[in-house]
Amino acid sequence: MFFDPFLVAFSFGVGILGAMLGGVQTFICTGFAGIVVYTLKAAGVEPTFLGGTVLNTLLLPAIIFNGSAVATAVAARKYPDKIEGWNITRSLIFLHDTIIMLVGGLAGSGGYLLFSLLSYIGLPADAGAVSMIIFGVIVRLTLSNGRKWNPDATLYYREQGWRYWVFQTVNCLAIASVFAFILHEAGPEFYGVGFSISAALLLFDYAGDGQKMPTTHQITNVVGVALGLTGGSIPLAIVFALIANHTYLVFAKYFNDNCSTHIDPPAVGIAVGTLLLNLIF
Question: What residues make up the domain containing 73?
Fold first, then answer.
C-alpha cells in the first residue's frame, strides 16, 4: 500500500490547521522547523521525530498548504465579500464556518494521498511541488469565480523591457551562487537547509513598513537538489536554479497575479527544475 491509513486521518487534521493558520504562515513554520532539524543534525543529534513527523508530515506543504489554499478558494466562493480566493495569507477562523474547515481537512488528506502516490511511482520531479500544482489547477478550473489567467502579463513584460530580466537574473545569480557555495561546503546532509531558510525569511513580509520579502525557495530548493544529483557542481546548481526561478517568474505573472485562486508559482519552478535535473542526471 502506498499510503498509511493513520496518516490519512492525521492529514485531515493538518489540513484544518492549514485553514486555521493561512498558507504563507504555515510555510514560514515549515522553514523554522527545517532550520531546527538541520541545527540538531549539525550538533550531532538525529531528530527522528522532528524530521519524520513534524517536518515531513505535519508541516509538509503538500498537506498543510494545500489545506489552506483549497479552503480559501471555497471560502471565496461562499463569502466573496469577505475574502478573495488568491489570498493565502489569511486565517479562515474569522468566517466561523465549520464547512470551510472541513474542506481544508479534505484537501489535507487529498494532498497527502497524492504526494504519497507520486512518491510511490517514482515521479522524476519534486512530488510535493507537483501535488500543490495539481490541486491548484483543479481548484482554478472548478472553483474560480474570476480570471483564470492574467491577459495583462504580456503588456507588463513589454513595458518592463530587457532591464527587468537583467535585474531578475542578477538577483537570482547572487542568491544561487551564495547558497550553492554554502551548501557545497556544508555537505550533502545539509543540502535542504537553503529551502528552510528561504521559507523562514518570508516572515519579514509581516515586518511592517510596507516592505516585501522576495520569494527565493524555488532557487534554494533547486540548488540543493542540483548539488545532490550532479556530485556537488556549483555551476550546474546555479544554472538550474536560474531556470527554476525564471519559470517561476513567468508562471506567476501569467497564471497567478491578478487571478481568482492560487496556483503556487514557486512550486511550478521547483517542479520544472527538479524534473529537468532528474531527467538529465
Answer: 5-280
Cβ contact 234:186 at 8 Å: no
Task: Give the per-residue pLDDT at 210.
Answer: 57
* Cβ-based burial of 31 (10 A; exposed 0-12, middle 13-18, buried ≥19): buried
d(CA 218, CA 216): 5
Report how far residue 3's alpha carbon sits from residue 5's, in angstroms, rounded to the nearest whole number.
Answer: 6
Domain count, the chain: 1
What's the 3-state SS for 242-279? HHHHHHHHHHHHHHCCCCCCCCCHHHHHHHHHHHHHHH
| Residue type, position 44, single letter | G
C-beta neighbour count of 118 within 10 angstroms: 20
Distances, alpha carbon 57 to alpha carbons 34, 76, 127, 144, 233, in Å: 12, 27, 13, 28, 30
Under-50 pLDDT residues of the chain: none
- Give the cell for residue 221: 530548493
